Amino acid sequence: MSPRSNSPTPETVLVHDGTTARFDGARLLIVRQRTTWTIPVRALRSTDLRSDGTVRVEISGPADAAEHGLDPVLELRGPNRRAAEAFFEQLRPAIARTGTHSNGHALVDRYDASATRRELSPGVRRALLITGLLLLYYAVLVVTDWFATRSLGLTMVLTFVSGTAGIGGGITLWRVGRRFRSLRLLRRRGITVVGTATGRVRIWSDGGHLWEFSLMDFTTVDGRRMKDVHSVVTVWGLSEATRGPVELTYDPEHPTRASRRPTVGFVARTLLLATVGLVLCGAFTLAHLVAFTV
Questions:
Q1: N or C: fewer beta carbons within 10 Å in the chain?
Q2: DSSP letters for 221-241
Q3: pLDDT digits (tens, 9 = 90+) for 19-75
């Protein structure tokens, strides 16, 4: 909704049958349910007050140009005739002293709050998807563990202890696999250029707790300037930050996939992550094998 005018004209309101009309001296606001139309005075051609207390307001321009959802001629009613007269007496002089636009329909602004609220951001949709998958995962574990043990205590232990270990191990192995896939693609089709290391960043969704990702600026061979691209190869978060020129390899099909040269430390850290993931997944598998065989 547009900000309210600084006009000294008091804001008058008509409310009738689910429609609210507000006039503040500069613009007419029509509110129906969760939709608001803002109509500046210069979009209005004329207004008149009928004997039944209806305030008729005509929007300037051809009727077929009304793509905003309002009728070309608005009929506004209030709770009584006095309210309608007060609204009309504020609106009529404002229209008389303001130049009328040739096509007022083009000046009408429509805001649909319900449509805006229904749209969920990608982050929210992702969180809802993950939550749903987790609920399904634990529900399946509860059912299978109950049939395997017939014990509520053992079921809870298997479900929430070993089940959580399985999730942690699976996520860890997925991260390791994604890193190796990126490095394999860069080795197969990557182009090496000299760029600039500008700093470091932790990306928590990629496991950035103690290990950080270099931020790099570089220019592709076809002239595209890439800024703050994080490297696939991580660095130890407690080491001294480095900045300056750096050799890097990027994927010409996806320039945001880029990396510094792999180091011995990176390989060791990745193997450590893989080992942790295998241990957690192994514990999950062993616990359920024992539960189903004992």
A1: C
A2: TTS-EEEEEEEEEEEETTSPP
A3: 999 999 899 999 998 899 999 999 999 999 998 889 999 999 887 767 788 888 999
Angle 52-86-26 from CA coordinates, rounded to 5°: 120
- Output the six-digit token pair for 253: 């099909």
Q: What is the pLDDT of residues 98-148, one digit of tens each?
A: 989 889 888 999 988 765 555 667 778 888 998 999 999 999 989 988 888
DSSP calls for 12-50:
EEEEETTEEEEE-SSEEEEEETTEEEEEEGGGEEEEEE-
Question: Do the beta carbons of residue 291 and residue 149 sit within 8 Å?
Answer: yes
Per 3-state DSSP, the chain is made up of helix, strand and coil in percentages (nearest 5) of 45, 30, 25
Terminus-to-terminus CA distance in the chain, angstroms?
67
CB 255 within 8 A of CB 195: no
For 186, list phi and psi in degrees, rounded to 5. Answer: -65, -35
> Which residues, listed in sequence order, are joined to residue 246 by a DSSP beta bridge?
195
- What burial class does residue 17 get, using C-beta atoms within 10 Å of its C-beta: 0-12 exposed, 13-18 middle, 19+ buried? exposed
Nearest to 229 by CA among 253, 201, 206, 192: 201
Look up the pTM and report it: 0.52
